[in-house]
Design goal:
The protein is of the alpha+beta class. 24% of the residues lie in helices and 22% in strands. Strand 12 and strand 13 form a beta hairpin. It is globular and about 85 Å long. The two termini are 30 Å apart.
């Protein structure tokens, strides 16, 4: 969608065999092969705003999309050409730049890592099997200067070792800016054992982004969000009582079931803005959202506040680190702060991982609520688009 240059780098126009190439001056020596002539020098700032044709503009997905050069301070000339291709649907930094520079966003693959319709010879192909066909297509168009193999770091699925890819999807977030300071105040009310636990939790809270609470799964906490396709208004339902009162269809199919799919998806409500019948969004909740609300959802917080207050906050929670600073403890703090402006536990004790004689990793975790032992946890899952479409 765009090409990024560093505004302060020096770029050159180099001519070779009747072709002109633009690249960073520092990159010329390693990027070009054979004899060439530098005919012009200019700054990256001079290139910003230039328009260009993309190599796949003929594909249906590329129709009506224009390409231009944008500035990006993270560009360097230590490898490549000093010009970075920006694809907002295929990378975190790319997507952020699309917001900054109002670039079009195209998401090319589905949940199985397969190219969707509109991408010509790529449609229906698995994402990790297209590198060679793409190179051959570029070569056939006369657009491939040269190809090379090089070693670099790449993320893989921790469960099955399949190479991972970035896929752009719509998700739901809770804005955390208003909760950041109150959560840090609540964190100071907890005794952390060992003491550096306080510093780690505060560091996470100081730098946390908005909280992504949705997952593209089937089974899980059904998010009570109803988004109207007619006017864009969304309503968040606060209880099963409110859902029953606002239901305009489907309550009979849901009544008597737990709030999980497929039963809860039968219920429709009237949009609070335009009155249209609205279904629940298909997303389910992040498992840590469910785990953090356990002290409220399982101890009659809504129905018997006196009983709940006998058990809240927890006397002590013992968990392993470092993951729980940004997972379970984060969720506990967020929801206790939002609902009660109170600490969810009195003291926290941290445990470490160990290895048995069989080299298996093990941890010990225990949650204690006023002397009664329980495990208020939800299991989290990670998925990838593996070769068997898992």
């Amino acid at each position: 969608m765009a090409a990024a240059v560093h505004p302060e780098l020096t770029y050159v126009r180099a001519e070779q065999e009747g072709q002109a190439y633009y690249l960073a001056k520092e990159a010329v020596r390693t990027a070009l092969r054979g004899d060439y002539e530098v005919t012009e020098e200019l700054s990256g700032r001079d290139l910003i705003g230039w328009a260009y044709r993309g190599p796949f503009d003929e594909l249906p997905a590329g129709q009506g999309i224009s390409h231009r050069v944008i500035p990006w301070d993270d560009v360097n000339a230590s490898e490549g050409t000093g010009i970075v291709h920006i694809a907002p649907g295929c990378g975190k930094e790319d997507f952020a730049l699309s917001k900054e520079h109002e670039l079009p966003v195209v998401a090319p693959i589905n949940e199985f890592g397969v190219y969707v319709d509109g991408f010509g010879f790529l449609s229906g192909a698995y994402v990790h099997e297209v590198a060679t066909p793409i190179m051959r297509d570029l070569e056939g168009k006369g657009l491939l200067y040269r190809g090379e193999q090089y070693r670099h770091r790449y993320p893989v699925c921790w469960r099955c070792s399949t190479d991972l890819v970035f896929r752009l999807v719509d998700e739901w977030f809770i804005s955390m800016d208003e909760l950041r300071a109150p959560m840090m105040d609540v964190t100071h009310q907890i005794t952390w054992i060992p003491g550096f636990g306080l510093d780690r939790e505060l560091d996470w809270l100081a730098h946390m982004d908005d909280w992504m609470i949705s997952k593209k799964r089937y089974w899980g906490l059904a998010l009570p969000i109803y988004e109207c396709p007619a006017c864009g208004t969304f309503d968040v339902i606060g209880s099963e009582t409110e859902l029953r009162e606002r239901a305009v269809a489907g309550w009979e199919e849901f009544e008597g079931h737990t709030p999980h799919r497929p039963y809860v998806d039968s219920v429709k409500i009237a949009c609070s803005s335009c009155g249209a019948a609205v279904s629940r969004i298909t997303d389910v909740g992040n498992p840590w959202l469910d785990a953090g609300i356990v002290a409220f959802s399982t101890l009659n917080y809504r129905h018997d506040r006196d009983y709940w207050s006998q058990w809240f906050p927890a006397d002590m929670i013992s968990e392993s680190f470092p993951g729980q600073f940004r997972n379970w403890f984060y969720s506990l703090l967020a929801q206790a702060t939002a609902l009660e402006e109170s600490r969810p536990l009195k003291r926290s004790s941290r445990t470490r991982s160990c290895a048995t004689n069989g080299a298996r990793r093990c941890t010990r975790a225990r949650a204690t609520l006023s002397g009664s032992t329980t495990r208020p946890r939800s299991s989290a899952s990670t998925s990838c688009a593996g070769s068997s479409a898992r």
